[in-house]
UniProtKB/TrEMBL annotation:
Principal cellular location given in the protein's record: membrane
Reactions it catalyzes: Na(+)(in) = Na(+)(out); K(+)(in) = K(+)(out); Ca(2+)(in) = Ca(2+)(out)
Coiled-coil annotated residue ranges, if any: 226-253
Name listed for the protein in its UniProt record: Neurotransmitter-gated ion-channel ligand-binding domain-containing protein
PROSITE patterns (alphabetical): NEUROTR_ION_CHANNEL (PS00236)
Keywords: Cell membrane, Coiled coil, Ion channel, Ion transport, Ligand-gated ion channel, Membrane, Postsynaptic cell membrane, Receptor, Signal, Synapse, Transmembrane, Transmembrane helix, Transport
Domain Neurotransmitter-gated ion-channel ligand-binding: 11-116
Molecular functions (GO terms): extracellular ligand-gated monoatomic ion channel activity; transmembrane signaling receptor activity
Superkingdom assignment: Eukaryota
Pfam families per UniProt: Neur_chan_LBD, Neur_chan_memb
The keyword Mitochondrion belongs to this UniProt entry's keyword annotation: no
Gene3D superfamilies in alphabetical order: Neurotransmitter-gated ion-channel ligand-binding domain (2.70.170.10), Neurotransmitter-gated ion-channel transmembrane domain (1.20.58.390)
InterPro entries, per database record: LGIC_TM_5-HT3, Neur_chan_lig-bd, Neur_chan_lig-bd_sf, Neur_channel, Neuro-gated_channel_TM_sf, Neuro_actylchol_rec, Neurotrans-gated_channel_TM, Neurotransmitter_ion_chnl_CS
Length: 291
C-alpha cells in the first residue's frame, strides 16, 4: 500500500455538545491478490483492514455507516469503473476477547468486484469459436474432389496469428486456466483435422497399392455394417470394378471406407467439443452475472 496522498485539511467540526469532529481524508493505492481461474468471468474479493499500530484499547474503530449505504455511495462516486464493476462492500469488526487490554480494534472491509467480460468474449472467445466452426463445416467438402488440406492449413495459420495478436489480453500467470486449455484444445483439434485430411487424401490416391485391411481395423470401424450406408463408396466401388481386379478392388475400397469412417468420427468429435464448449461458456457467464 502506498502512502497517503490526500491533501491536508486544517479544519475541525465543533458541535454544540462539545464534541469535536476531525475528518481526515485518506487516499491510498492498494493491491489485491487475484484468483483468475475463471477468467474472464472472475469475481474478486479484496479486503482492507484498518487498525492502530501504536495505541491499544485507547482507540476504538467504529463503522459510521451501514455497509449497504457505503456500497450505494461508492457506486454513485465510481462513475467510470472501466474493466471492473463494483458489486458490494461488506464490513466486519474483529471481536476481541483479550482480557489483558493489549489489543487493537480492527475493522475490515471486503470489496467485491466483477470483471466486465464483454470485451474478452468479443475479442477472444467468439473469434475462436467462429474459426473452429468454419473448420467443422470444412468436413462437408468432398475430399475426392476438393483439396481440404490447403483450406485447413490456412485456418491453422490464421488461428496461430490470432493467438499471437491476442496474447496481450490474456493474464500473465503460471497457473493453468480453463481459457488457455480451451485455446489449446481448439488448436489441437485443427491440427488433428489437418492430419486426418492428409490421411484421407493418401487413402484416396494410393489405396490400390495397400495390403488388405486387417481384421481388427474392420471390427474397430464397423466396416461391414457401415458399407451399405455410403453412396459415395458405392460409386467408387463401381468405378474400381471396371479398372482393377476383384481382389485389388476390395482392398482399395476397404481402405477408402476406413478413411471415410475416420472422417466421420472426427466430425462427430468436433460437434461434441463445440457443443460442450459453448454450453460451458454460457453457464459460467450466466453464473458469474447472477452472483
Amino acid at each position: 500500500m502506498d502512502e497517503n496522498k490526500a491533501p491536508t485539511v486544517p479544519y475541525v467540526y465543533v458541535h454544540d455538545t462539545g464534541a469535536v469532529h476531525d475528518a481526515l481524508p485518506v487516499k491510498v493505492v492498494s493491491s489485491c491478490n487475484l484468483n483468475i481461474y475463471t477468467f474472464p468471468f472472475d469475481i474478486q474479493n479484496c479486503s482492507l483492514t484498518f487498525n492502530s499500530y501504536i495505541y491499544y484499547n485507547e482507540i476504538q474503530i467504529l463503522l459510521g455507516r451501514s455497509a449497504e449505504e457505503i456500497t450505494m455511495n461508492s457506486k454513485t462516486v465510481m462513475t467510470t469503473m472501466g474493466e471492473w464493476e463494483l458489486l458490494d462492500i461488506t464490513a466486519k469488526k474483529l471481536e476481541n476477547d483479550d482480557l489483558t487490554g493489549f489489543y487493537t480494534d480492527q475493522l475490515t472491509f471486503h470489496v467485491r468486484v466483477r470483471r466486465r467480460a464483454t470485451m474478452y468474449v468479443m475479442n477472444l472467445l467468439l473469434p475462436s469459436c467462429f474459426l473452429i466452426t468454419v473448420d467443422l463445416f470444412s468436413f462437408l467438402l468432398p475430399p475426392q474432389n476438393i483439396d481440404r488440406s490447403s483450406f485447413k492449413m490456412t485456418l491453422i495459420l490464421g488461428y496461430t496469428v490470432f493467438l499471437l495478436i491476442m496474447n496481450d489480453l490474456l493474464p500473465v500467470t503460471g497457473n493453468i486456466i480453463p481459457l488457455i486449455v480451451f485455446f489449446s484444445l481448439c488448436l489441437a483439434l485443427m491440427v488433428a483435422s489437418l492430419l486426418e485430411t492428409i490421411l484421407i487424401t493418401n487413402l484416396l490416391c494410393n489405396s490400390a497399392d495397400f495390403s488388405p485391411v486387417p481384421g481388427w481395423i474392420k471390427v474397430l470401424v464397423l466396416l461391414q455394417e457401415l458399407r451399405s450406408l455410403s453412396s459415395v463408396l458405392r460409386a467408387i466401388r463401381s468405378q474400381m470394378e471396371q479398372q482393377q481386379q476383384q481382389k485389388e478392388k476390395q482392398s482399395s475400397e476397404d481402405w477408402i471406407q476406413v478413411g471415410f469412417i475416420i472422417d466421420r468420427l472426427l466430425f462427430g468429435l468436433y460437434i461434441v467439443f463445440i457443443s460442450i464448449s459453448f454450453i460451458t461458456i454460457i453457464i459460467i457467464w450466466v453464473n458469474s452475472y447472477n452472483q
